[in-house]
Amino acid sequence: EVMGHRTIFIDGFCPKHLWAGYHSESKAKEYKHACKRACQRAVDRLRAGGLALEAVTAALIELEDSPFTNAGTGSNLNLSGEIECDASIMDGKSLNYGAVGALSGIKNPVLVARRLLSETQKGKLSAGRIPPCFLVGKGAEQWAISHGIPACPSEKMTTKFSLSGYKRNKRKMELAEQVEMKRKRQFCEENNSACLDTVGAVVVDREGNVAAAVSSGGLAMKHPGRVGQAAHYGCGCWAENARDVSLYSTAVSTSGSGEHLIRTMLARECSTAMQAENAHQALLEAMQNKFISSPFLAGEDCVLGGVIVLRCCTCGEAQRSEDIQALLVEFLWSHTTESMCVGYMSAQDSKARTHISRLPPGAVAGQSLAIEGGVCRLGTVSD
Q: Active site located where (predicted)?
């Protein structure tokens, strides 16, 4: 049983590999370090009195700045050799949401999503116009700059690793077109190597508020203008405070093949499932019935994705005390990819812990799933 004041959990997939969702030992080490730094940034914000929304933003900025993730700096290049990013954020307390899609020229897409969320809370614009919560493309870039978020040339966000990956994938595509060997399974296993490396975070603060965020550079060699699940409502992330003592607060972040996650609205589906008594069983059934075997993905033989899920409620014994607030927190993750990198940390911990979750031996990626997690009790002294 782990005690602490507040908790943050970080997830994501390694940026680029020959096999979708597979973490080599060398790249896994770098990604673990990125997860640990993101955990530390968020916990620092919580320790300073920040709320869940501020902490989850801090975590995502750290992950976007890492050249080893497919988000922000180091993102996959699209078919035209350009960077276009997707990101979204959701506040469980207000239920407000902000998102950007196919965004170029901004170093930290999550900052734009966060600012969009904040602006919606200020009320209507002139002439009674409703403020936007989701912007894409050039309009999103212009809006960001007009609201004080600095522009960043795309070449400064491109790394040697992402550029070499683009050149390698381009050669693969040209060869595949010449020999006409674009079979679906081969695409899933060979050309989809960088589609699953979305980064995300879920947080609960000392007040019991939850928040979630997600950011991604999208598919390698995607068509310009394509928007993945990281920007779509209910698909990339979801956060919702409990509105009743009999309910759980939930926060979810997803990663994987964007089109699969969009068509199943997996983030919201997993959040809804978390109201069941047994969280582990509920997530297992959601991943199997709402994702792998979803009627919306009928005909897909390689359904790739993963989720991190946090749910919390006030502990029964804490309700009898006016001085102590305690939260029972359950943190679970599940994936159909070969592996998934997860990190987690509470404000009482001296350092973050990371874990590479892998499918069981003999399991087939895209058709089988792994599920892990645990429970902790977080006690905080009331202010």
A: 198
